[in-house]
Automatic annotation (TrEMBL):
Native source organism of the sequence: Parasteatoda tepidariorum
Protein family per UniProt: Belongs to the krueppel C2H2-type zinc-finger protein family.
Protein name in the entry: C2H2-type domain-containing protein
Span of domain C2H2-type: 14-41, 42-69, 70-97, 98-125, 126-153, 154-181, 182-206
Signal peptide start and end residues: none
GO molecular function terms noted in the UniProt entry: DNA-binding transcription factor activity, RNA polymerase II-specific; RNA polymerase II cis-regulatory region sequence-specific DNA binding; zinc ion binding
Protein's cellular compartments: Nucleus
Amino acid sequence: LTKHSRVNTGGKPYSCSICNKSFKKRESLNKHMRIHNVEKQFSCAMCSKSFSKNYSLTEHIRIHTGEKPFSCTICNKSFTCKTYLTVHIRTHTGQKPFSCTTCNQSFAQRSVLTAHKRIHSGEKPYSCTICNKRFLTKSTLNVHSRVHSGEKPYSCIICNKTFSNKQPLTRHMRTHTGEKPYSCSVCNKAFSQKEHLTRHNNITHA
């Protein structure tokens, strides 16, 4: 029966009651729970979010203050913490130090490699508590959850239209700025959306 249960749960019958991540063994779940049980004595006075380490709180506060003390020497883009800067610099150097042992695809971030590996394993450790749909990453689960909650935390600063995630907001902003980042390689006509370029190529140059 235990073996049968693991088949029906994707082989991971032990789920975290806090973040819904699933595990094959109870011991792994118990170890994971320590992440949630760590005492978080450093609290943000602006949003009440708490942290176990003072430096984590310091980095978090920069989200509220807008402070970005770490700057890229190549393009001057700034970041709230050194880790984000390190990852960003790889966009200039092309460095991708994290490789998949299955398909040899390389990535600039370890977290992206971890998510990528789940494509091969079929693992979807994050599940929606409302509809039980499962996801590869916690971020995609968070976006999905807004379908149920109706939350739209991303707002257009020009017309105040709101969106459930950042990507459609970015596309929407182009209606105000007139930006057209997608150009046809045949006739150089530019488009604000990638799907508009694809449709143009299929109709005009196919």
